[in-house]
Amino acid sequence: MTFVFPPLRRSRNPLVRALSVLAGLALLGVLLVFGVVVLGVLVAGSLVFFALRQWKLARSPRPVAAESRRPDVLEGEFTVIRQGRPVHH
């Protein structure tokens, strides 16, 4: 079963055709402007969010312990494995 659209009845009047083309272009312009406005709102919102986040990070006190750590020291849990003995975890 196939679905077929009914045939389009185009007007033969050139004035009606011109007006329909103008209406289509106007609708396209409105959609384009709406898209640009939405894009502008999204960009402005993301800039405000980023600025607030950076402002909060700049105002928060930095922990002193992070500066005293040596970067060549690994932290974690380790298991000492001795040769000759089986290791059971």
Q: What is the H/E string?
A: HH
Judging from the principal axes of the Cα atoms, what is the shape?
Answer: elongated
Q: Give the low-pLDDT segments.
A: none
Number of separate helices: 2
Distance, first to last CA: 65 Å
In total, the number of strands is 0
Q: Structural class, judged by helices and strands? A: mainly alpha
> Whole-number radius of gyration?
34 Å
**Mean pLDDT value:** 84
Transmembrane segments: 20-52
Keywords: Membrane, Transmembrane, Transmembrane helix
Layout of helices and strands, plus pairs?
Blueprint: H1 14-59, H2 64-68
Transmembrane segments: 20-52
Keywords: Membrane, Transmembrane, Transmembrane helix
Structural descriptors:
mainly alpha; membrane; transmembrane; 89 residues; transmembrane helix; 2 helices; 0% strand
Structure write-up:
Keywords: Membrane, Transmembrane, Transmembrane helix. The chain has 89 residues and is mostly helical. The protein has two helices and no strands. It has a domain of 26 residues. The two termini are 65 Å apart.
